[in-house]
Amino acid sequence: MTFIPMRIDVRNIGTVVAGCLCSWAAAANGLYWANEGPAAPENGAGTEFGRSELSLTLPLEYKKRGAEQVSSSFHLDMSKFRWSGTTALQNDYFWISLPLEYRQKRGKNAEFLLRAEPGFMTDFNVLDSESLAMNADLIGRIYRRSGAFWQFGLTVNREFGDFNPRPVIGMATKATRDTEVLLGFPQTRIQTRWSNDLSSYVHLRPAGGVWVEEVKDQTGTFKANYTNWKLGLGGEFHWRGALWLTAELGQMRHRRIVATDTTGVQVKATPADDRYWQAGIELRY
User: Fold this and answer.
1) What residues have CB less than 8 Å from 128, skipping those under 6 apart?
2) Across the strands, what pairs with 223?
3) Which domain does 265 fall in, by range?
4) End-to-end CA distance of the chain
């Protein structure tokens, strides 16, 4: 997620902190690779659990007309799990989606945001209505003269490990000239800009998922659910042109995995808190 400096005129809300509380689930344009663990489960099945993930987001279209903005992109996540001691999660798992966003100014100090991200959660053995899903955000913002804002709404997002609706609440402001603070749920982030080409950040966010798969030696389809929260420290460096290099290290918390093994039995585990790292290249323009 890109965190954009708060240079704001509340009379022109379209220029406001476009990435600050944009969607905690919205990926920045670019490519990144992440690795989790592996760690032994605190309880449940298996002897070791980890995941590697490759993510790609490409912009498709952006339009602005008066008080309205519309944007779209293409997104792909590929996850590979390492769950030793079980026969579950033996495939490669994909989330292939089309994030859409609509923004509308409402008066001098308010904004309405609607985001929808339809996609397939699949192992590519299942590509039918059962693998269709959609993330969604319905959010309202109220801006203050200082450029800070409050945000309220509802979200449904597979990164929680399910599709239950949850509230969105947050407050964004500038703590100092170079430090931006975003406090709330489901994401909290603090970012400091050291120069035009370098910044650092700390953030907390959900990073799980849901997939539909076929299981070897079994008939039908099955769901895999992964709950995971990441607390990370990262940096961003302007490399050249519109390209930025990013790197992040952190800890994972409150993890839970539920899937089906090759005997058709549902297996569960609570992986221990463990480290992760992430590196990538982003496109910003």
Assistant:
1) none
2) 212
3) 13-283
4) 14
Three-state DSSP state, 14: helix
* Alpha carbons 6 and 174: distance in angstroms, whole number: 7
What's the CATH number where 245 sits?
2.40.160
Kindly write down the DSSP assignment for every residue of 139-184, as one continuous string: EEEEE-TTS-EEEEEEEE-GGGTS---EEEEEEEEESSSSEEEEEE
CA atoms within 13 A on the CB side of 238: 12
With respect to residue 223, please indicate whether it lies within any of the assigned structural domains: yes
Query: Which residues have a Cβ under 8 Å from the Cβ of 106 and sit 6 or more positions away?
Result: 67, 112
Look at residue 265 and tell me if it is in a domain: yes
Is 278 domain-assigned?
yes
Question: Does 39 fall in a domain?
Answer: yes
What is the C-alpha separation between 37 and 217, in angstroms, rounded?
29
- Prior bond to 38 cis, omega within 30? yes
What pTM was computed for the model? 0.87
How would you write the pLDDT of the chain (285 residues) with one tens digit per residue? 333 333 334 334 333 343 444 434 356 899 999 999 898 999 999 999 999 999 999 999 999 998 999 999 999 999 999 999 999 999 999 999 999 999 999 888 999 999 999 999 999 998 888 999 999 999 999 998 777 999 999 999 999 999 999 999 999 999 899 999 999 999 999 999 999 999 999 999 999 999 999 999 899 999 999 999 999 999 999 999 999 999 999 999 999 999 999 999 999 999 999 999 999 999 987
**How many domains does the chain divide into?**
1
